[in-house]
Write a structure and sequence with these properties.
191 residues; alpha+beta; 60s Ribosomal Protein L30, Chain: A; 5-stranded mixed β-sheet; 3 helices; 9 strands; 26% helix; globular
């Protein structure tokens, strides 16, 4: 039985065929601890609480990517993964540079880093995640052109790698259906 995404894709494909336009961009749901980069146009989705997503875009080549990390830094290089902001953000920069981009044409956007309020366990982690993203981008000479960070609401992020457009939907609480069609838990709770 097709899910809602299949029906939406069918509708997009039919609409594009009827109007003689190119089909819709590929879609990808980015889980915590992952990085996505594509030369082909793509729409990347993620759900953020205290996690942070960094979107980088090359305005000359019109390609972009996103990371989604849970923790600010890992000091031990032998345990480095994209779950950590210092690793994930630098890796995204390096991936774009490997595609022939130039630091001077890269733009950054930062999203997430929220909490349930002052004193909540994730409040400090969210602040540190945002700080790490900003520090890495500053060291790499990449300007942050947009950010939506902090606060007490979760975010659903939709990012278009071709246009560098981001849509942020803020929610009071992350519900099971926010993850549809994905079920993702991180250490017993959504990111």
């Amino acid at each position: 039985m097709p899910d809602r995404r299949d029906k939406r894709r069918e509708g997009l494909g039919r609409k594009a065929a009827e109007s003689h336009q190119a089909p819709a961009a590929g879609e990808y749901f980015l889980k915590p601890g992952y990085i996505y980069l594509s030369r082909e146009p793509a729409v990347i989705y993620c759900v953020l609480g205290s996690c942070v997503a960094v979107c980088l875009w090359d305005r000359r080549q019109r390609i972009g990517g996103m990371n989604h990390f849970q923790y600010p830094q890992i000091p031990d290089r032998t345990q480095a993964t994209a779950r950590y902001g210092n690793v994930a953000t630098l890796a995204l920069v390096r991936l774009l540079l490997a595609e022939g981009t130039d630091r001077g044409t890269l733009e950054g956007q930062i999203f997430g880093g929220g909490s349930r309020g002052p004193g909540s366990p994730e409040a400090e982690i969210g602040r540190q995640n945002v700080s790490t993203a900003k520090e890495v981008l500053a060291r790499q000479g990449i300007a942050v052109t947009s950010e939506d960070v902090g606060g007490t609401r979760g975010r659903k992020l939709i990012y278009n790698t071709e246009t560098n457009e981001a849509v942020v939907l803020k929610v009071e609480r992350l519900r099971e259906e926010d993850w549809y069609p994905y079920r993702l838990e991180t250490e017993g709770r959504p990111c």
